[in-house]
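Replying to the earlier thread about multi-chain prediction with a worked example.

Input:
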Amino acid sequence: MHFDPLFLSRLQFAWVVAWHFLLPAFTVGLASFIAFMEGLSFFTGRAVYLRISIFWTKIFAVSFGMGVVSGITMPFQFGTNWSRFSDDVGDIVSPLLGYEGLTAFFLEAAFLGVLLFGRKLVPRWAHFFAALMVALGTLASTFWILAVNSWMQTPAGFDFVDGRFQPRDWLEIIFNPSFPYRLAHVVTAIYITTGFVVAGVASFWLLRRRFYEEARTTLSMTLWLLSVLVPLQAAIGDQHGLDTLKYQPAKLAGIEAIWDGGRRLPWVLFAIPDDAAAKNLYEVSIPVVGSLILTHDVDGEVRGLKSFPPEDRPPVAVPFFGFRIMLACWGVMMLTVVLSWWLRMRRKLFDADWYHRLCMVVAPAGFVAVIAGWATTEVGRQPWTVYGLMRTADSVSPSLTAADVTLSLVAYSVVYVLMFAAGIAMMVRIFERGPIAADHADFIEGGRPQGPVEALSRGGEG
Amino acid sequence: MSAHVLDLAPIWAAILGVGVFLYVLLDGFDLGVGILYGFAPDRQSRNLMMNSIAPVWDGNETWLVLGGVALLAAFPLAFAIILPAVYFPMILMLLALVFRGVSFEFRFRDSEHRTFWDHAFCWGSALGAFAQGVVLGAFIQGFAVEGRHFAGRSFDVFTPFSLLTGVALMFGYALLGAGWLILKTEGPLQDMARRLGRIAFFGVLVAVVAVSLWTPFLHPAIGERWFSWPNIAWLSPVPILTAVAATAEWRALNDRSEIAPFLSAIALFVLSYLGLAISLFPMIVPYKYTIWQAASSEATQAFLLVGVLVLLPVILLYTAWSYWVFRGKVQANIGYH
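Result:
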């Protein structure tokens, strides 16, 4: 680990993207949830849905604003710190980023204003439509950015011309081999993450014996959703793994800390991987299960890291532990879901304090899993930016000095810590205040008479 | 790609030019409101000023992302050279925009630290504008380039000229912001906007004259373009119209017109922008690479062009709708805060 511009630029990129990722991991799901609540409110007219929606829209406003400003940083990172990557790969990835802007960012931004401040200024259907468009925009953004990320993992549809990547087939570029799996995996992960936060907040209200109606509605609804998504995620993740085995064998070997390949491999439960000596220390493993999980066949063959030259191997510890942390989070979430089934059968879902405490503890599990999974896949891709084709070391801007990047990294660190600390504190306060204290005043008044929804939104505040 | 049917590079140069200009105009007025925010006398006025841009700032800032990504898509070589060259002003801008962007919500939610977020909003806007001006100045001056890389050092970007353009853009945005506030507010706040607008106008006037006189000496090609015959005749409308727009702006700031100050400020920006384009075209990495040399593959330019042609009109339509929803004077009594 050398504190050169390359390592510092990687650290800086990891820092800004990790913090940024936490926000869409929550807001993409929350946008869909709000649109759903607005829809229920619009079609059933029940006030509780409107109160829930107004409450979560406040949380959305705080987190989405942070997501926007931390996201604007990202494309510029490509230029400031990874200029050689931009030059060589720009012809392929940039139109996808361009489509992200055109199909997602403008849509989100324009309708967000109406969603947050326009409730009184537009008809009810238009406000519902705005909520739908914001949700659609967040999903479109997820689609494009994951297409870019997946292309870097499993590049396809390009030619090399003068050492630069040139597009050959856009459909192959977008729908590259890992994209469908990654998209399904990440979107599901985002919904799960949001679901556990919503369930955690509802449980918090139930424990405080407050906002009973809102809490019951959201807790029950999200636990049904999670009952589908959490088991489904295991199946999607499994398919994603098979895809990685096929297209990124060195990464898979890194994730599983397999040094010597072969058949009937054990599954490594725990170990301290030693990259230099190319072996595991203190290994605890289950015989044969490795091949079974990774290939769906006890006799399945998996390549080991030693079959790759040392300079082409990923560092093992981060993907290895990252993957296991993600799995552990899934286990806890699955247990929470199974317990909810049992409580529902006994009709005690809304009365079991211990379960609500559990939900509060599990609330941030999705974030941990998302970051662990992200670290697994990105560090597992090393030492490449474009897997197997362009090295991270050849991607960094040549003009940067270690002092330059240290200075910018310190600046990013200070600003992000400050912003996130303030933002999280603010959201916690909103959770505590709950839906009743909600808003008298979340609207901006243009020069227009008050719209028809006003009476309703006022009436809903009790 | 097969036969060369259409030269896409100038089309992309035009799209990029318009996209960046829309950014300058739209985020320009809301950064300008942020700069003027520091001069507001009380909380009531601050609330109004912030409310006047709260529903639209996010959309305005999206043009910045589109500008950056369009540069990467259409002219990746320019992106790869320019961004490392403007490393520090770029990071300053991004972090300033972070502070400013979160202030909208944070100031409202976090009443214990409202003064802090007030400062964050004002300083974030001011530093963001300044950093963009520095980038502009560095761009006009040109960069040290070797092959396909920026070959200078990261601090080379700060020169007397780029610091001048940095300050100039702060005044320019403040003028736009004043125009917006005159349009959106009334009473004492509008009077304040007129007063501050007049100060900003003087700053802009001095800056435009200084930059116009300095630029032709930065590079012989620029002087050549403006002062050689017959160019000097063809291009003379630009300075003449600028003088007309400046006069109109001054009168508008001093009479009771509510929309003319904003429109005249826009005219001043259009003309200054046009002047820069005339000075530099067809350079995308000034004095080193033209738009044709820095262009991405035809397949890349064509693929994204389809998206722009189909989606941009739709974007403009719903963006216009979102502005229309929040039309009229911004009110204080029932508001965001």
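Chain A touches chain B through 79 residues (CB under 8 Å).

Feel free to reuse this layout for your own posts.
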